[in-house]
Design a protein that fits this description.
This protein has 508 residues and is α/β, with parallel strands linked by helices. The chain has 17 helices and 21 strands. The strands form 4 sheets. Strands 1, 2, 3, 4, 5, 18, 19, 20 and 21 form a 9-stranded mixed sheet that branches.
């Protein structure tokens, strides 16, 4: 009897020892994501069923079958991706800081543009910009947008670069949210000086600002913030787009414009930054090329109705383009995506968000892009879903000069990862994940988001900031800015909203 008892005990001890040795031999990682369907977007465009990703620090250290990675690694944090699609974080190539707090303001009237200009230059405070950064940062996290580029203002290039404190507040808030972000700063459109309003409580004073002052503030923001937060925060430089046929600038004013453009572009090259411009269309590329603004470090937004020569210029200079299919500019003039792609130009997608009438939901803009171009060509073969997925990930990373770090899920790249819940009525059956993402998913299907290996949202709960506090602050600051600017009337539903085939002509 004693011998019969001893043998099992020895076996058990041996098994325990074996398990202990196995556990000790497994590598430790910070996060292990297991059991999901991985859309890698790597060079082979692999899709891995029951896949896993191991993360150490801010980088991916392994990717492969769940069984293989769980045998090899033990994670301090384990994320179960069962019934989830795992893919690279989405990249938004063009947005506008400030727009999050003026959504729909003056919509369906001719007052939207001047209203934004009034608020940004005359009605905004440091707290306005902080609240907007927090609000739109949380929106992007919820929609799976892990990297974005935004202009620091809007309207007709109303850049809030009169004082560094506004940019500091915006970037500090973005740092708190945790996304990867590029803020484009630079001067306004001539003539100068420009008037800005500084608020101290209920009192205010007007300040006159020159081109040189705006450029100095932009450089100060570059020195303080470019490469901050472990490389997550970066600065780009912007200069107003000029269309010779529309701007009618001549003589001394044209000479001043050219001088300012070249000086601003020199600033971007001095610090090896991206250079971006908003609102390109017929004639603007030729003008920009003559000024020496183009190049592989330049990103032009909108880009509608170019001549064949301008498309060739973009290809020759390797200038990158942002396509914003949901923007008003894409309604007024056609974006020549097929022609640009066929010429070899790198094109990424942008939201042009979030105002007046669009969000940062890049799934929505991806779907819009496919419909937009297929309708023009009357051909459902135009712009395959795979190409649009590339424009949100690998192509976008290349356009931003970040392709070595983001855009695909590969060993050595940054752990910018999103999980999409496809155990939902509009996503089931769980097959053909590439098509589910391109045609059926929306931003609210994103369940978990990581940037730089940090979990920003888990199971639809934002972890980096207190979302309720952010919403409360945003509501307060939006109402205050509208009141300071005397624009309360623009929140009302305009005449002609109901019962018409089109809105009535606006009164001058």
């Amino acid at each position: 009897m004693k011998q019969a008892i001893v043998v099992p005990i020895i076996c058990v001890l041996g098994l325990v020892a074996s398990l202990g040795a196995t556990m000790q031999s497994r590598e430790s990682v910070d996060i292990l994501i297991t059991g999901g369907t991985i859309i890698t977007m790597d060079s082979a465009r692999r899709v891995l069923e029951d896949g896993a990703i191991a993360i150490r620090g801010d980088r991916i250290v392994a990717i492969g079958p769940t069984r293989a990675l769980t045998d090899r690694f033990t994670g301090r944090d384990r994320i179960d991706a069962k019934r989830k699609i795992i893919m690279p974080g989405l990249i938004d190539g063009h947005g506008h800081a400030g727009h999050g707090l003026v959504k729909s303001l003056g919509m369906d009237t001719e007052k939207w543009y001047p209203a934004t200009e009034q608020i940004y230059a005359r009605g905004s405070t440091v707290e306005f910009w902080r609240a907007e950064a927090l609000l739109t940062g949380v929106e992007r996290v919820r929609f799976g947008v892990t990297t974005a580029l935004s202009m620091f203002g809007g309207g007709d290039m109303i850049m809030r670069t009169d004082d560094q404190k506004y940019g500091d507040a915006y970037l500090k808030a973005t740092q708190d949210v945790g996304i990867r972000f590029v803020l484009a700063v630079g001067p306004r459109r001539l003539p100068f000086p420009k008037t800005y309003t500084e608020w101290n409580g209920d009192s205010s004073r007007d300040v006159s600002v020159t081109f040189a002052q705006q450029l100095a503030v932009s450089e100060a923001l570059i020195k303080r913030w470019h490469g901050a937060a472990d490389g997550r925060l970066n600065i780009a430089v912007t200069f107003p787009t000029h269309i010779p046929a529309e701007n009618r600038v001549s003589g001394a004013a044209l000479d001043e414009l050219k001088s300012q453009a070249r000086t601003t572009r020199e600033l971007s090259r001095k610090y090896k930054l991206l250079f971006t411009q908003d609102g390109h269309t017929t004639g603007s590329v030729t003008f920009a090329d003559a000024l020496g603004l183009l190049g592989p470090d330049a990103i032009l937004s909108h880009a509608t109705e170019f001549t064949d020569e301008e498309i060739a210029t973009l290809a020759r200079t390797r200038t990158r383009i942002v396509h914003n299919p949901s923007a008003n500019a894409a309604t007024r003039r056609r974006f020549q995506l097929v022609e640009l792609l066929d010429a070899g130009v790198t094109v990424m997608l942008g939201s042009d968000g979030v105002a007046p009438d669009r969000s940062y939901d890049m799934f929505r803009h991806m779907f819009q892009a496919m419909r937009y171009h297929r309708f023009y060509w009357r051909d459902t073969n135009v712009l395959p879903a795979g190409k649009v997925l590339e424009m949100l990930t690998v192509d976008a990373a290349k356009a931003l000069g970040m392709e070595k770090d983001i855009g695909s899920l590969e060993v050595g790249k940054k752990a910018d990862i999103i999980l999409i819940d496809w155990w939902r009525p509009h996503m089931v059956p769980m097959n053909m994940p590439l098509y589910r993402v391109a045609y059926f998913a929306n931003g609210n299907d994103v369940s978990t988001v990581l940037v730089n290996g940090r979990v920003l949202m888990r199971d639809r709960r934002v972890l980096s900031v207190n979302e309720d506090e952010v919403l409360t602050m945003a509501e307060r600051e939006a109402n205050a800015a509208i009141a300071r600017s005397g624009l309360e009337g623009l929140v009302e539903t305009p005449e002609g909203f109901w019962g018409r085939s089109r809105l009535p002509k606006q009164k001058p």
